[in-house]
Amino acid sequence: MKKEILIVGGGPTGLLLAYELLRRQVPVRIIEKRQGPSHTTRAMTLHARTLEMLDHMGMAHRLEEVCLECPGNLYHFPGLSDDQCPRTDYRVLPTRYPFYYKISQENVELVLREHLFANYSISPEYRTELVALEQDAQESVTATIRHPDGRIEKTSYPYVIGCDGVHSFVRNAAGIKFEGETVAVMSMMDVELSNVTFDDRWMNYYFNKDLFMNCTKMPGKYWRIYMSEPTGHYVFDKNPQKAYQEVADKLGIGFKVGKPDWVTAWDVRNHMAQRYRAGRMIICGDASHVHSPSGGQGMNCTMQDAFNLGWKLAAVFKGEADDSVLDTYEKERKPIGSQVTEGALATHHIVMGFGVEPKDRLYLTQEPAWEARTIKLVSGLSHNYCDVTVLPEGLTPVSGPRPGERAPDALLAKEPKRRLYDALRRPQFTVLVALGTLNPDDVIDTGAKVRDELERLYPRQVSTYLISRQREQRFDIDHESIDELDEFSARYDIPAEGRLIVVRPDLYVGMTCIPSEWEKLASYMSQWFKAGQDGSFSLATVLSRMSRAAHRTSPGFDDEFMPSKRGHMPAGRPVRRFRTYALLAIFILGFLWYSHHRSHRISNSPFYRYDSVDWSLYAYVQYATSSAYLCNSIMIFEALHRLGSRAERVLFYPEEWDTRVDSATDRDSQLLVIAQQKYNVQLMPIDVQLVRGGSDDVGSWDSSITKLLAFSQTQYDRVIHIDSDVTLLQEMDDLFFLPHAKAAMPRAYWEWAQTRKLTSLLILIEPSYREYKALMDAAQPIMAGQVGAGQATADNETTEVRYDMELLNDRYGDSAMVLPHRQYGLVTGEFRTKDHRAYLGNEYETWDPDKVLKEAKLVHFSDWPLPKPWVMWPQKLLAEMLPRCDNKPGTPEESGCRDREVWRELYEDFRKRRKRSDPVVFPGITSPHTHIVAGGSAFQRTMADDTARNANATTCSIDIDRSNYWIPQLYHMMPNGSFELIPFQGMSAYYMNRACNYTEGATTCDKSKYPLAPPQGLRMTAGDPMRRTYNNSDFSNRAIAHMCLKENTSTETKRMPQEPCLRLRSEVFFPSCWDGKNLDSSDHKSHMAYPAIGDYNGGVCPESHPVAIYSVFYEFFFDTSKFTDYQNWVYATGDKSVGYTLHGDYIQGWTNQTALQEALQTCTGTQGERASSCSVTSGVVVGGSTVPLEIPAPVENLGQNGPLPKLPGNNPIINFPNVTSSA
Q1: CA distances (Å), 372 to each of 50, 402, 788, in order?
Q2: What total number of domains does the chain contain?
Q3: Domain that holds residue 1160
Q4: What is the pLDDT of residues 218-271, one digit of tens each?
Q5: Domain match, 949 and 883 both
Q6: Has keyword Transmembrane helix (predicted)?
């Protein structure tokens, strides 16, 4: 039996469920019988509760880029003006999202897929169909699965989850009845409109006695229109444009309907599954309920089903909870499904109550509290589990949100902005310890008891969070915040004596109680988890309890956590110390057994399996206060991405910046978008904190204490802040798992003898609002320009200018954990000095610059007064600052100059990484790897739509082809670990008639019809440099291949050849189906698609991308005859002997589009484009011919001057999961 959950269905429900399971370390497999991702879907709204849920999962910010905010619905009753018409205005909702998003299901799925793949390398297996299910009595469910190639697989799983829609195979196989009725017929159209006179921000409902139409503006140029009438005459009309226009005219709407982009029709049904579970088969989403689209609740309700099920299924799968916990999924969600169905039906009767005059339906909107009740129901904010919530006996009733209701969000602080939901991001239960005005010390002590008791019984299942009304000097339980605005206290009705509030992982209140009844919390938790009192310790349990023991015996614990015994040794200390040693012994024995028996690779940390870590609890933090430092921060995020860091990423930036790219020169906005989209960085606008008395330049390092904001990020257990003027050499995720310390920093070893000062170039932080407030309070006099910030004293002396480094040393100089400076504090100035005793830490070790660089994880650029590496150096100053050679320095005979060489290489590498080019994926900034480029001479870092076709020359044999074609460079890894170029021999590009336009019902292409030539300025990519696995059912995977060319034979494989070859041919086949509108898209892929019917290299285009273009296919040839150790061929991405990261980019630059189209349609003989009668060819590049670039490439040794010690960009060799290298 496979130890993973099988999810059937790759829509929003299945994808979200997979994410919830994976973030709790539960392995999943997603199969989907569709040909590929959806491009035509009816769902189009995300409501407030769903957005709160997605924000909790870290995805809401990504959705903002592909949606429109809608304030609510406007019901246009005939005869009433817009001001008189009823409306449901969502702007009054008490939530961070007082509106709903208009967004296509296609884009929701896209964001979910992106996050799944970026965080867990998981993607749905498309064209893979479940054909049979068989459940045994106790243990498993056997699934019979048909693969795209017809192969049949039979595999057993502990649970199978049916997220497979209205016609669910899983539901039918489980024998679950699906009962209900058809209430209407409806059609939907995406279309361009003209002469629109109504407010397009709103969802506009128009209707009369017999007709209904709903009109709303979608992101982009299209409108979405829903239409219904009782006869089906208009709904199923074969000329939908005409039918929609007639209905619009009859309703007096006044717009003109253009040519439809997409039209569909269906029966509107209200159906509910009899039950949601049959043993180990569970249904979720549309498989369990479907209802009228009125109100747009369908996709929201299904995703919230998955949010409810995910944490419960994870606990059961891992043995932390009884199987009976899964029964609560149906108990809680089925009544919600009924509420949603009834609410949708109520709106349905208002707008589609056919046969009843609208004036006779108006009363439905005039009932008391109709608007408030409707928006709370439709938004999901009023959904609750109150009727089925089980509470401990004898619990004193309290005011505030009831157990089972949504846990309200609240703004806790304005600067930096902090919300309650930030504290609830962990995928676990949270106990909020809310202080009132009476006896706060007693409530704090109670909170500590709660923490210890729940950790003892339910390790790693519960976190505690203190919320006080004023700054508490003594401790934080797990984390702490201050209710600065009293919004939390008001929304939760916190009384003077305080309150304990349990919030579930799905953001619902579980239980509330008065502090004196704290012991009942354990009783409440027992319904969800098995108590860990039986003496059996999992590795996670041992780690958790060891961590607690370490906390309790750390210096200052009693001062911080036991104020009543301040200054005294607790009587229990010897017992706890003995317990610590006993636990340590148990841990060591358990770990040795675990290491011996486990089958998975041990991570870089000796105590943690990285695959089992919840990485949402850890983050790297950067701040940028100028364009130069923003670029540096992007380089840091690129390095973290390249080195394989799994932690989250956060960037603080000035609030006056934005992500709206106004022009090609708007570099700040472009870089912010790249950070967000390419490297999954969470962007946090802030009011930059300035230190007066320092530099006048707002962007300078010495005028900002913004890095202190990292201490405020209490949604994380730990964060790492790294100064952006560094080069990262190795990953450092293992720092997150060091023993407890509020701060950890390396020593400023260059000042060791005088000051013992710590350097803030790298800080490992345990975020705490108390610590943040203390640091900011200490900074206030400096920020105000008072003495201590470089001002004159009464004695007319100038005090020391104090910045973040001094503030941190004041607070942590004697208590911080000290990180080894040889790994985490190396500065470039060390290569310029001849006295290395401070760095080496002794007087006997010999300085070796190569050894030093190899053991360092980062290098900080610090060579004052020499400027930073992105600033042009004064040549005279450079000559003075260069590291001196050991022998005869400054003479023609000088030698022993390795320090100088290393120093120069560090600066040159930094500059090269700021300049390396890829104008499609990384316009205007550094590409993380090098490419081999063919085509027009205008190739450069930033290219407009017409840049390519205006090139002066081309390497193509056809002069009018100024397009650019490129793939990663291929290297050979030598026995000493260095890299040499494998010679490029040339490339061939082909434009082929393989795909055809979308036509309803078409299954094959008519070869007598010709597709379009690729449009001028088209940009697209194929393949993925981040791909780590191969999925044969995914066309984008199959479109990448390799050909091993020998003297008389050739073999094509998807992986790199696993045998010696005379030549390697790297092949890229681009998507052939265009959306007909966009020459590019944010991911450089979404505007293109592979065929929906057929294969990656030919077939009928999907309805979403209906325009077929000539298929672009190219081959790059490398001379591998001298490199017989094929297992050491390496792409510039770090892909060694596997080849999954091969990808291609294309910019169309043909100078004569008409000539290209005519040639492609006429050069169809046996000689094709090589026929002498053909006016142009499809562009064969011969002999690796070269032309000079019009914009010279950055000067960089990419291997052309001999072997490189590292791949350009310092790309490491990739470790591919589930791929056994032949190396």
Answers
A1: 18, 19, 55
A2: 5
A3: 917-1215
A4: 888 889 999 999 998 999 999 999 999 999 999 999 999 999 988 988 888 888
A5: no
A6: yes
